[in-house]
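FAQ

Q: What does a record look like?
A: Structure on top, sequence underneath. For example:
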């Protein structure tokens, strides 16, 4: 019998469990650990609340979770409740599928001012993540600057721009919906150091900005390269740039209350303000021969009472696990960290790819694990983990417990919404206990 522990219950974790089931059949026991009482990680807390179709992939993970040889072990913090070294003694393979939930820092003067947030915390706030439910971002100003040119920047801009009615059917946290309803936001500027041809924005997410009830996207036509140059782009990128051209051709604002400005060739160099952010100093850039941005020396200031940085993510450190500081992920070679210790998904390769990219990654890693552990070494596995956690007074949350939390969230949902999330761990525990 083989015993595998997977740390992290997001897409990478469940795809790896699925791959292990298919590779080993009944001769494997898999425990999926998570520090929160709720599974599905990025699906629950990272995917935008108005993208419910994407969240349906959790049904696939639920099928894996309900298998006899897979168990969800929630409310257990690896590195605190149990050490990595202890897991490695109990299991034939330990797989880190923790994702990359921490923001890359914006190392600029003024980045520590009030009103400056990384996208992990801001997205976590409107998605009801317990770590960020109380950050209370200031929405009393007219001007917001979003730094970054990827889909997360689009998510942030879209959520800030929607009317209350447009959130119908979403699972946005109620505290966020209430705050957004009275927000004074009028202009959202999306800053990108490079140009339209270098954006990491997909056509679906970009196109949604053109369908907002009370907000209109705006692009300066002078930022767009000659249209003939679009032919050299990949098909998806070409569609995205075509949308930017459409935005540039529309009248500014189109009579709507909010404007989403795309400011290309613009690199933030300083955040302005005394105690709270009041603006962003921006340097105009140009691209060198390899399409890398370089400053021109020309600067200008943008007003901003809220700044959200969408510049990338890092995996969390775990004591005893080698870490690649430059890449912001665990140090590994093809998913192997140490004998018996592995990583998968963003924890392995950094925050790149889509949710679906994690599936082949998980299957590839399980092939390596199969080579390394053979038939297993007769370790204690699940029984050993349970004994250790019980001795330490750690109350685990199983998938059956999660289903009770799930039912309670659906029961308390606003009309038309799929659920109203609990945003405090103690409330989740109370729900599964029936309190």
């Amino acid at each position: 019998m083989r015993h595998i522990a997977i740390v992290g219950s997001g897409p990478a974790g469940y795809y790896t469990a699925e791959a292990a089931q298919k590779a080993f059949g009944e001769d494997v026991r898999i425990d999926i650990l998570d520090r929160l009482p709720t599974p599905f990680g990025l699906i629950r807390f990272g995917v935008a609340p108005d993208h419910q179709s994407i969240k349906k992939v959790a049904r696939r993970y639920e099928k894996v979770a309900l298998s006899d040889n897979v168990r969800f072990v929630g409310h257990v913090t690896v590195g605190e409740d149990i050490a990595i070294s202890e897991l490695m003694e109990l299991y034939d393979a330990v797989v880190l599928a923790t994702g990359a939930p921490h923001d890359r820092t914006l190392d600029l003067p003024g980045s520590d001012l009030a009103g400056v947030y990384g996208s992990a915390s801001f997205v976590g706030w409107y998605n009801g993540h317990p770590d960020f439910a109380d950050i209370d971002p200031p929405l009393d100003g007219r001007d917001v600057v979003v730094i970054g040119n990827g889909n997360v920047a689009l998510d942030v801009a879209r959520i800030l721009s929607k009317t209350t009615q447009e959130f119908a059917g979403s699972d946005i946290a109620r505290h966020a919906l209430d705050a957004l309803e009275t927000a004074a936001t009028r202009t959202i500027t999306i800053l990108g150091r490079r140009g339209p041809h270098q954006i990491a924005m997909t056509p679906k997410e970009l196109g949604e900005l053109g369908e907002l009830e009370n907000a209109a996207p705006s692009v300066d036509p002078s930022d767009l390269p000659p249209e003939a140059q679009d032919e050299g782009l990949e098909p998806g990128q070409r569609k995205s740039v075509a949308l930017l051209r459409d935005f540039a051709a529309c009248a500014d604002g189109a009579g709507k209350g909010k404007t989403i400005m795309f400011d290309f060739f613009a690199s933030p160099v300083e955040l302005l303000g005394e105690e709270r952010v009041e603006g962003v100093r921006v340097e105009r850039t140009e691209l060198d021969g390899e399409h890398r941005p370089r400053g021109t020396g020309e600067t200008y200031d943008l007003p901003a009472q809220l700044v959200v940085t969408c510049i990338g993510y890092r995996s969390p450190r775990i004591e005893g696990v080698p870490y690649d500081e430059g890449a912001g992920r665990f140090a590994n070679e093809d998913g192997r960290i140490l004998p018996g210790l592995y990583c998968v998904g963003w924890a392995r390769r950094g925050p790149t790819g889509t949710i679906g990219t994690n599936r082949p990654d998980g299957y590839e890693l399980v092939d390596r694990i199969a080579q390394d552990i053979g038939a297993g070494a007769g370790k204690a596995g699940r029984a050993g983990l349970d004994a250790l956690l019980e001795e330490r007074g750690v109350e685990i949350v199983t998938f059956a417990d999660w289903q009770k939390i799930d039912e309670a969230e659906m029961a308390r949902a606003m009309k038309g919404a799929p659920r109203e999330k609990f945003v405090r761990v103690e409330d989740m525990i109370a729900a599964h206990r029936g309190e």
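Q: Is there anything notable about this one?
A: The radius of gyration is 23 Å.
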